[in-house]
Sequence to fold (703 residues):
Amino acid sequence: MKWAMKNLTLWGLVALLLFGPVIPSFAQDEIKIGGIISLTGPKAALGQEEKRGYDMAIDKINSLGGVLQKKVKLILEDDRFNPSVAVSAAEKLVAEDKVVAITGGYGSTETLATLAALKNYAPVVVWQGAGAEKIEKLYGKEPWFFHLHPWGYYSLLDLKDFMLTLDPKPQSVAIAYEDTSYGVDYSKFAKKFWSEAGFKIVAFEPFKSGSFDYAPLITKLKAIQPTPDVFYWVGYVGDAVLLIRQSKEMNFNPRIFADTGGVGFPEFKKQLGKDCNYVLGIDIWSPKVKFPTSTKYPDLFPSSEQWLKDYRDRYNGRDPNYWSLISYVALAATCQAIKDAGTTEKSKVIAALEKLDTMTPMGRLKFGAGSYGSIHQGYKQGLVFQWQEGEKQIVFPNNLKTGSVIYPTPVWDSRH
Amino acid sequence: MENFIQVVVNGTLISGLYALIAVGLTLIFGVMRVINFAHGEFMMLGGYTTYWLFVLLRLDPLLSLLISMVVLAGLGLIVQRCLINPVLGASSLNQILLTFGLAIILQNVAMILWTSDYVSVQTWYSTHSLRVGFVRISVAKLGIFFMAIILMMLLGIILKKTETGKVLRAVSQDPQTAQLMGIDINRAYMIAFAIGTGLAGLAGAATSTVMSIFPTVGVEFIMKAFAIVVFGGLGSVAGACLASFILGVTESLVGTYVPGGGGWAEAVSFTVLILVLIFRPKGIFSS
Fold:
């Protein structure tokens, strides 16, 4: 028995010496792409939404034969919505996993930290999240950085154009913003664009995202006389729900409630019920706006209706928000570019991404110049929507609208 | 002036919720000398219990509040028995690490079971408010405030008048002597922990009617609860109640009247925490 054990160990060692070096070549049969999203932590709901898009994309790509005859492996890292965790995740992906490209992102603060860490390595980055213009200014000119999400200021220009169509034209705007890069950046542009367009900014108030009481903020805004025509805030979905709840509680009645973040999520309606009605927001995608199948890559980028059906079938009838779709596009476009390049060599993948011009379920994707110096900006369009009878209706721009805006918002006491 | 009254009312109402969370935490510390970092997660679980009772059985939170409290007290008993008891003799660092680990596990379990989506219970009183003159008073928060007052009074009576209360106080003052006097301190620990987690469950249930519940909701609350507990004096129930009130109103005042106050209001609790730790480490109300 002892002899057998000894022999086994010996043969085991011999086998390890012989076949050991072979093992890494299995690993090379995969093309590794990194993904950095918040799978846990305060913004996990969004990270999970992004993951759903990734999962769909990775299955689709591999079912189409993978990339360069190899299977694509997505290495997901959880940044827990924490900049320092995001930095170590980014470094791990580049240094240890040696991924070909990195996708990911949601919040601007972690994105800034991540990109600062990645700058030394300059890998191919196809980033679906973050809208702060600071990121555009700092990294927009980097040849390795591709950005899909419209920069925040596009939404604010869209909202401004929309407000100018209203009759009577709103006069005063109260702005509240969550006090990290995301809110600070959006609110700064809101203030700039809107005051230039002739709206009077009567309040400009920061708040802490995730607070459990916004009564002080609402009380402060309510004390402004006359009541501001527009109440615009920048925050996440939990903030949006609580701000509306407490506006109702305290009978705060601006003519317009608008937000460029949280109000777009299904949870906003789910938690508020009919109180979600009349609130305005911006989406960069709506299931109501139809985009055709890509002529170049029909399997990878089906029509928006088909993609929606695939998502619902896969996730038991759940409705997606655009974060799953934009994550799908980020990963799919990255893989397609590697395929088009015919190699994982960085400069060629970058060239292929620059050449990419295709219809996607979110609209046409062609990386081009942004307004503040970036060279690889993907999407720019915004759709102003209003919650009406628990449904989002696109109310602006006019060529894509699915309903007319209800304005002014009925006062709380008159709603049943 | 109208505005000022509204601001004070806002602050007073929110302090009810603060008290429910902080008192459980301070009771556990007072009796067991254990800082329960998982207290916020017990609150989160209380919120989910109420939410699911509402979704599955259409049970109104007013009724399910008590169920959540009992369920969480029960869970507290199990946790105390299986996890806290073995480390009671260990250094406080071990205890902190244990409860901290427990907090993370509970958050992740909640995420796996119920995803990270925000949920809340919508009842007619969730966003309903009473109009008293020019002041608006949230019905749900008013309910929570009165419930907190009644519970705190009840807890006060239990601690002062009943046999169990005397046992808890004796153990809190001097566990060794209490043991020499024939008091079963393990039983006292169990009771204190169960009351504490039960109150956290109740706070969670109440929270689910006025704001969203999600797996990490407890984190925000626990930080505030720590500030209140330190402010009121570690282990002091009455101190915690008073500190909740002062903190609630101060936050409301800062949030409304200081320019950019929304950002500063959140800092109030931590400024208080730091100042108290430096100047009055035993709490502002200790003699």
Notes: The first strand of chain A starts at residue 30 and ends at 37.
